[in-house]
Write a structure and sequence with these properties.
The strands form two sheets. Strands 2-3-5-6 form a four-stranded antiparallel β-sheet, with no helix packed on it. Strands 1-4 form a two-stranded parallel sheet. 65% of the residues lie in helices and 8% in strands. It has nine helices and six strands, in the order H-E-H-H-E-E-H-H-E-H-H-E-E-H-H. It has helices spanning 2-15, 40-50, 52-72, 109-175, 181-216, 242-252, 254-276, 313-378, 384-418, and strands at residues 36-38, 79-83, 96-104, 224-226, 281-289, 297-303. It has two domains: 2-73 and 112-277 and 313-431, Outer membrane efflux proteins (OEP); 75-104 and 282-311, no CATH class. The protein is elongated. It starts with a helix and ends in a 17-residue tail after the last helix.
């Protein structure tokens, strides 16, 4: 009787605040005052503004714009030739010849260069948008990983606290001969396991925090956590079918847009290579004086290279290969997009069902059973070993829920990334011509 009353009072203190009574567990260890609480939107904004990998990709747009400017500029400058045979040996030239010449393209090569450069600029913009898609998906995955790790840490710390309190009570019981050494050792083991679990989850939190700091482009000395208001929010299955999602992805995916733009660029370059096989014409105006006092004569000169040896055959063959290669790349990207959407959609459905199962069939009875443990133990219906086993099962249910929650959010991000809808709420200038 003494055993039941004393240990029952301890269990009442341990179990009076039931674990996981709400979906979002309140933090026991408050973050430092200088810790930044980031919402997903804030983390995304920081990444768009500061992520080095994304900023480096944006520089490709500037390089492609420079190539377009070069393509729009006529590549051949006029040339002036002046010939005066006696201009240095005598007092002045007794005869001279002046030529003002210009090389002229006749096959529309400039238009093909401009078209290729415009396609290259479109591809660069699409690739920057695709890098934004990848970075934002990494940011959101890392945000949810940090949020889930934080919730698991709360549960692990609560488990540690419960085990430490139980251990203190059992040590008193052991000294008074109320429990056996075997029972006391079981509690010692569970308390040590709980402390080890806290250390492991703390490491998970630290790794996720550093990853989020890196992706957001923050200083390594920064400290961040996820905004608690967004943790635990319900996520619904998309009200659409897999074919509709695939169609959205094929229309939106910037990597597919880039590969299609490269097809246009390759075709323009192939056409340019064909046209460059035709020789350019050189046109020159001539002014010539044969002797002092003789009126100068004016005329025209024409020059056309004879394509006897170099007819651009190798370049044309290479450009044709590039066109076929670009077309095959489009088909490969389309197949990858369809596969990614299908995998993400199925993973999303499975993860959502798992979370719904936890919320409807696992957590409610688990939390109710937790409240019944104290009464059952006080009434002598449970021994200490059974109490530890059942309570750990209940606490494992809480940890399992947050693992399922994280998997559901990972699947959600994967689906939004696969369909490129993760970019829909952004206002990025470089996306204007990316589709």
């Amino acid at each position: 009787m003494h055993r039941a009353i004393m240990l029952g009072s301890v269990l009442h203190a341990v179990l009076s605040s039931p674990l996981g009574a709400t979906t979002t567990v309140a933090r026991q260890d408050l973050p430092p005052s200088d810790t930044t609480a980031l919402t997903i939107a804030e983390a995304r904004t920081l990444a768009i503004r500061q992520n080095p990998a994304l900023l480096a990709d944006l520089e490709r747009i500037g390089a492609a714009s420079a190539e377009l400017r070069t393509a729009r500029t006529y590549p051949f400058n006029p040339a002036i030739e002046v010939e005066g045979p006696s201009s240095l040996s005598d007092r002045g030239p007794d005869r001279y010849e002046i030529r003002f010449g210009q090389e002229v393209e006749l096959a529309g090569q400039r238009g093909r260069r401009v078209a290729a450069a415009e396609a290259g600029l479109s591809a660069a913009r699409a690739e920057a948008a695709n890098e934004a898609r990848v970075v934002l998906a990494d940011v959101e995955r890392t945000w949810f990983t940090l949020a889930a790790a934080g919730q698991r840490l709360d549960v692990a710390r609560e488990i540690r606290t419960l085990n430490d309190r139980l251990l203190d009570a059992v040590r008193i019981q052991l000294s008074e001969g109320e429990v056996s050494l075997l029972q006391a050792n079981l509690v010692e083991i569970e308390a040590a396991r709980a402390r080890a679990r806290v250390l492991a989850v703390e490491q998970d939190v630290a790794e996720a925090e550093l990853a989020l700091i890196r992706l957001a482009g923050l200083p390594a000395s920064a400290t961040v956590r996820t905004a608690a208001a967004e943790v635990g929010a319900a996520v619904r299955l998309p009200d659409t079918s897999l074919p509709e999602l695939s169609a959205t992805a094929l229309s939106n995916r910037p990597d597919l847009t880039a590969s299609r733009a490269y097809v246009g660029r390759a075709e323009s370059l192939r056409s340019l290579a064909t046209r460059e096989a035709l020789p350019n014409v050189g046109i020159a105006g001539i002014a010539e004086r044969e002797a002092p006092g003789v009126a100068p004569r004016f005329g025209l000169a024409f020059s056309v290279p004879v394509p006897l040896f170099d007819r651009n055959q190798g370049l044309r063959e290479g450009r044709a290969v590039e066109v076929r290669q670009a077309g095959l790349t489009v088909r490969a990207v389309e197949l990858r997009v369809r596969t990614e959407v299908a995998d993400a959609f199925r993973a999303w459905q499975a993860a959502a069902r798992q979370v719904q199962l936890f919320e409807s069939d696992v957590l409610p009875p688990a939390r109710e059973n937790q409240r019944l443990l104290e009464t059952a133990y006080q009434e002598g219906k449970l021994d200490l070993s059974t109490l530890l086993l059942l309570r750990n099962q209940l606490l494992d249910a809480e940890l399992g829920y947050w693992e399922a929650w994280e998997q559901q959010r990972m699947a959600e991000v994967a689906l939004r990334s696969a369909t490129a809808t993760i970019l829909d709420d952004l206002n990025l200038d470089f996306r204007e011509d990316s589709r």
